[in-house]
């Protein structure tokens, strides 16, 4: 199983950014992909997830209204759309996958496979 994140970079506060997660190396059709954020010196924080079985998504209150998640199941791609970015959104963003689904999107230990992360830096 391989996950590759892309789309990170340096952006100004108030702008938008979309991160991509390309998943490969498996044939399962049911899985949950989660996006996690790790700020400097902190643990990984779950910020969204999507389950391919029914397309359901979960967004925590901390980013609700600004972040959304979508997927292209045919391409095994998952996207994190981030709007109105704030300096506190700065961190390394990871995607992770759990088969066949994750019971919670908040716990990084729920997910078995991880990408290497992409850095997002939001300047004020």
Characterize the largest beta sheet: strand count, sense, and whether it forms a barrel: 7 strands, mixed
Total strand count, please?
Answer: 11
| Strand portion | over 45%
Seen as an oligomer or otherwise, the chain set is: single chain
Strand-pairing-aware structural class: mainly beta
Principal-axis shape: globular
Key features?
single chain, 124 residues, mainly beta, seven-stranded mixed sheet, four-stranded antiparallel sheet, 50% strand
Question: How would you sum up this structure in a few lines?
Answer:
With 124 residues, the protein is an all-beta fold. It is built from no helices and eleven strands. The protein has strands spanning 2-6, 9-12, 17-24, 32-38, 44-51, 57-58, 67-72, 77-82, 91-98, 113-114, 118-123.
Commentary on this structure:
The strands form 2 sheets. Strands 2, 4, 5, 6, 9, 10 and 11 form a 7-stranded mixed β-sheet that branches. This protein has a 4-stranded antiparallel β-sheet with strand order 1-3-8-7, with no helix packed on it. Helix content is 0%, strand content 50%. 34% of the residues are buried. The chain has strands at residues 2-6, 9-12, 17-24, 32-38, 44-51, 57-58, 67-72, 77-82, 91-98, 113-114, 118-123. With 124 residues, it is mostly beta strands. It contains no helices and 11 strands.
């Amino acid at each position: 199983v391989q996950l590759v994140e892309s789309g990170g970079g340096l952006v100004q506060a108030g702008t938008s950014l979309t991160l991509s997660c390309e998943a490969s190396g498996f044939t399962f059709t049911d899985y949950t992909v989660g996006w996690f954020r790790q700020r400097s010196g902190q643990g990984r924080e779950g910020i969204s997830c999507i389950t391919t079985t029914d397309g359901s998504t979960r967004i925590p209150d901390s980013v609700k209204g600004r972040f959304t998640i979508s997927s292209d199941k045919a391409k095994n791609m998952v996207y994190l759309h981030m709007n109105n970015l704030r300096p506190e959104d700065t961190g390394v963003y990871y995607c992770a996958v759990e088969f066949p689904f994750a019971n919670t999107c908040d716990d990084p230990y729920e997910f078995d496979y991880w990408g290497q992360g992409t850095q997002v830096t939001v300047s004020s």
